[in-house]
Amino acid sequence: MRKSKIYKILGVLILLGIIGGGIWYWQLPTRHKAIVKSFLFEKLGVVNPNWKVENQSETYKMISPEFYIDGIYKSMEGPKSSNYVQLSKDSTLLWLTGFHVKALDAKSLQYISNDFICHTNVDFNDVNYYSSFHLQKRIGSQYPRLTSLSHGMESFSFPEGYGVPMKGNEYLYVTTQSLNHNLPDANFWVRHEVDINYSKEKNLKPLMSRTAFIMLPFNQSDPYKSPLDPGTNQCIPVETKNHTYDDGKGNKLSGHWVIPVGKNTYRSSVNNQLQIQDSLRLHAAAIHVHPFSTRISLFDKTTNKAIFSSKIVNHKDKIGLTSIEPFSSVEGIWLYKNHEYEIVLDVNNTTQTEQDMMGSMFLFFYDKELDDLLQKK
What we know:
Elements: H1 3-26, H2 30-43, E1 52-56, E2 59-63, E3 67-69, E4 80-86, E5 93-105, E6 117-124, H3 126-132, E7 145-150, E8 155-157, E9 162-167, E10 171-178, E11 188-199, E12 205-213, E13 216-217, E14 236-237, E15 244-246, E16 252-254, E17 257-259, E18 262-269, H4 271-274, E19 279-289, E20 293-300, E21 305-314, E22 321-324, E23 327-336, E24 341-349, E25 355-357, E26 359-366, H5 368-376
Parallel strand pairs: 9-12
Antiparallel strand pairs: 1-2, 2-11, 3-11, 4-10, 5-8, 5-9, 5-11, 6-7, 6-10, 12-26, 13-16, 14-17, 15-16, 17-25, 18-24, 19-23, 19-26, 20-21, 20-24, 21-22
């Protein structure tokens, strides 16, 4: 076979590969496109995948790699990056006291609008963490996410005198993701600065994290069909692969759903997520919601009263969250096993199209069992 014919065949195969790859790429969801682009940028050397890390006195500061913003990225769709964090090289007991994230211009590293921050998740290795405190029975009891910062609540600290204890040489896993609700013609790069505050004091009270979030039933045979009866509290899931759960009875629930135009209220029992054995004292809560939320509450159905409510302020002239009211209490609020609890979320979709929604809380309770262990040591 002549070389010229071989080159023609190779050229045709390459062309077909490019066309096929292009078709495959354009059929991907937005968040998967972001993953592909980030991977290519890293492999081609367009961006440096390494984080910039600086461990100052009681503040672990990180700056993420560059994120390319080239269009609309709704919640959980934008480019992201992850990094392992080790606060010290030895097993000294440290106390996590606060978390902060800010958006930066990729070149100047000057602060810009936090509208380009989707969320920053802080995960831990529950096997190592609980084993180090001889609390192996807790391993696997919950998803090992310590907390999450998100658009509207980009800064969060525990009340004075409280913190989450951990050995300094254990690892945290931090993932931060970008966002862009309002600039369809965007063409720029951003970074995220993530700070973790910690203390070396020995007289703090330990907190443990419990994650609670709204899960709504949907039609398993036709998930994207609007519920015939809105009173059934059914939803239309954004997708059925991620954020889909089983209620233990074979019914599917979604933690990421679609809201119609106008005002609506969504509620979901969280007793199974709280896992209260007798009683727990709540001291802090970090909130994660999407734009068009207006209020979220942890509600005690037994007393018919809210444990706390967080007011949520939306931008007036564009899509986004201006602020989420935090919950923090030195005194704490008691929750009891024989009470029924739920999360209640109020929304107001002021656009003319459906929008996506989530309602989550990272709840921090005084950990008496761990406190007793630490006092013995």
